[in-house]
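## tool: complex_structure
## caller: assistant
## args:
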Amino acid sequence: MASMSSSPTESAIQSAILLSKVELHLDRVPVLQSLSLDVAEGGRLGIIGPAAGGKSVLLKVLVGLLKPDSGSVKVRGTEISDGDENTLMDVREEVGMLFQNYALFDFLTVGQNVAFPLHRQRDRIRKSSGDTLSDSEIDERVEARLLAVGLAGSGNKMPSELSGGMKKRVGIARATIARPKLLLYDEPTAGLDPVTTSKMYDLIAKDQKETGCTIVAVSSDVNALCTFADDIALLHLGQIRYQGKSDSIADADDELVRQFVSGADQGPL
Amino acid sequence: MIGQARIESIGSGILGGFATARGILKLIAGSARGVLRRDYPKGEVVRQMYTIGNKSFVFICITMGFLGMVMVMQSGEQINRITGDLSPLGAQFLRLFIQEFAPTITALMLATRVGAGIAAEIGPMQVSEQIDALRLSGITPVSYLITPRLIASVCMTYVLTVFAVVVTFSAGGLAAWSVFGLNPHVFFDSSQVHTYDLVLGSCKAIAYGSAIPIIAGYCGMQARGGSEGVGSATTNAVIAGSFAVLQIDFFFSGIGFVFFGGGL
Amino acid sequence: MIGEGFVRSIGRSTLFAFREIGGVTLLTGKVLRSLVPPRFDGPEFWRNMYRMGNKSLPIIALTAFFVGGIMVIQAGVFVKKLNAGQLVGWGAGYSIFREVGPMLIALMFSGRVGSNNTAELATMTVTEQLDGLRALAIDPITYLAVPRVLAMTLSLLVLVVLGNLIALYGGALFAMLLLDLEFSTLYYSLVENIGWMDFVHGVIKAAVFGASIAITSCYFGISVRGGAIGVGKAVNAAVVAAAISIVALDFFVTYLLP
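## result:
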């Protein structure tokens, strides 16, 4: 199995994410099986794979929304697999996530949704030090973020008034506004046309250049994701079938991987 | 012969029951912690009080009004058949309304209206991953969502119960006057009401008010998959809430009768 | 001072209430019309009878058992005060048969079956399954609503008869445990004072409640708008409407019947 890390001691410092031998069952069905993964700080990993292969579950494990049955999950050097709430809170401070169904709070306006992580961050900082953002600074940052995702002036709308693509962009704005060190995207381009898809990836890439964060994206749109990500992992039946550079995946040794990427109807899948 | 499949289904039913009990206990602990820490959004309790209280006002008014009239009519007829002396009717009814019917029937009504409302609100949030998004923002969903509803529900159930006593008693007096020609001065008599009745009625109202949002919140958070999941979460909330109300009623009335002799 | 907004909100909710009452009445008319001559789906009726009647038996039985206990505890105070043990059977029987039995069982039935039915129909509506039926030239009212209305009416009737019995036995058990009464005292007190009319009174109520739960739950299920949130709201509206109609009809039936 191809991997981008060298020795384990070194990777403990360099890795944004380090999973080893993670097992997870949901309703007695194995969803992740002895899964190991290593993502370098500042890297871009794309995760692809057939439906129900455990992609979304893997993202939720990375932020402790699901607790693995066994194995170790290290996010930026912190072990989170024991599910301790305080550790999780600290880790989640530095993580942003776009959910598959956007998960916009439908009792808040678009602007309040985007501002939500900043307000939470402010509440937490206020408890320890006291040096915080003012309301007008938060408003400015929300406006700037909405402008960046192409939704300037929509701050007062309710999420139910938006189309699916717009909701997705609000979700991205909310995930990125607190400048997290690790960003997780669950299907950032599902249901979008090719032009909007590439715009979306441009936006994500531009953000990353400014903040230097690590990105893990899950998508069923293999080609667009391969263009965006440096590395690609293919998840099949809860196991990683392939991990390597995105430009060499079409020449993988594994026939299953080649078939999935090319979309041929003949093959092991 | 009991087949293996049958035993297995009983076994998984028992395990499921334990899981549910554990989930509800966790929810009680979580929301109580939320009450102490007060880490729910500002103004949320007032907003919930409005949705739970004000919007149930007319509903409680209509249902309890009819109930008061029916009960007085039914029992008046029986008393007429036996003694014909309707004068103790009002005093006895006020006692019964305070410690039994006003809290319990109000709570049954609220279990449908408020319980279904809470599950219909939290269910979609669970299904569309909003609960996960809350957790990701470092928020405990239980204290953020359930605690304000719990506080609001306890307060408003109590207020609505007091209001229900007034409505049922007035409607009952009206029925006694128009059907049996009983003088309202005789009916409106509070001499039979003791501290015991007030305490028992209050305890019941507070217990109902806490049970309804907890159970509905639990059902909402268990919702899985699309609109079908939300529908069955709402249904479960109604039925489990109503059943819990009846059990609490039985429990409190039983304790009152066995340990305090029914207030005599 | 009463603000303009307040007046407007009263007006809006009055209009809303009238629209729902009109919709329920129209549906009632359609259901009645398809009953003479009977045109409805037989297998669908039996399937619903099983789901609605048989499957609610445990919860209804438990409810009835507790209700019997609660009634006896309430009567217990009078028994102690007036030494009126020979009246317990009659008092509990009378209130269970005529009032408490049908009403509480109907409220539970509305929570279990009525709301389930709304949720199911509402899900079918938002996922365009009703339009699918219309496209196959099947009238959704005769195919879906009529068998459900019949099944709910009939199954609540049967459940109330069974529930009354269980409530009486529950009551007798607690009367023997808490009040030290003999079973025979309770039995003779019941049969000597309770007439057929008391029993029939409750059974008629059960049928009326069953029909009203069925009509309101079908109406709110079919007229739902807007996704998962809409389904939740429809269930909420249906149980509220069912509760109001149960209590209101209880009053009118009590008033009209001997």
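## assistant note: Chain A touches chain C through one residue (CB under 8 Å). Residues 1-12 of chain A have pLDDT under 50 and may be disordered. Handing back to user.
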